[in-house]
Predict the 3D structure of the following.
Amino acid sequence: MKDNEGKIDLLAIDDLAEKLPALIDWGIRIKNDDEALFDFKPLEGMSIGSIYEKPSTRTRVSFEVGVNRLGGQPITLLSSDIQLGKSETIADTAEVLSRYLDCITYRCFGHADVEELAMNAKIPVINALSDMHHPCQAAADMMTIVENMDRVNGHVAWIGDGNNVLHDLVLGSAIMGYDVKYATPAGFEPDDSVISRAMDIAERTGSTIVGSNDPVEAVSGAGVIYTDVFVSMGEEHMEGKMGSFDGFQVNENLVSNADRDFIFMHCLPAHRGEEVTDKVIDSTNSVVFDQAENRMWAQMSILTYLCNEAAWSTYWELR
Ligand code: CP
Ligand code: NVA
């Protein structure tokens, strides 16, 4: 979505709207294009800063390596090392970083913080996970589904917490035209306003979105089964939360209800033995490490599109 500066910020996956399928195809193409990785440097002379207020393995490494492969300079800023959150406001940080950088990625606690950074920055801002959204994950997830199946048999099933990853999975699936059935325990449903946004998109693309508190119902006939940790980063104080997830573990018994060729997905890190068993995550149905790899390719596509749209468009003609 273009803001007043005419830049595109990616705060939730629906900010990419109908451009998402093309961004995914571009990511798949560059992933399979060894030559491009040597001579295509659309971020040459650019610096991409990444602020982290929470830990990260995949997001941090995939952004650093992806920016480097595109010819840019990645700069990682851990919240413990910078002034933000201690002696400087988000708005002032946005102004200052806009004088040095070409794009900022930001992993934060409250979603309002990344919105404020985007509002005050003169350069594109990418949400690298907030409590509400994880668009980079959804882009990689949609890319992984496209790579693995010509069409989704049945639907995309979510089993677990109504969290940030679910929000962008539902929005992304709606854009791609995939049907979704999600099951969460009572009291842990996704945010109403996000589901209503997804429903609006689904109406246009012809997909359906159904929520329930019944994991068996959600998983029955599913072509994709997705889960995530029951307790997210920043929720460690919610001691009693785990107790609400009885029956929501993705195990062999539950997945026996799915389509025969289902794929199992997880954004990782996984808490093995909690939301998923080893037998499922290590099975041949599991594509979790493809998802992790695709973080890098999907983000390379998004970064090129946001920072150098002309090069992003030209690449289609070159290859
Ligand atoms: N999936 C994901 O965002 O992983 P990290 O927390 O390791 O970045
Ligand atoms: N829902 C998880 C996702 C981690 C990638 C969290 O926010 O901690």
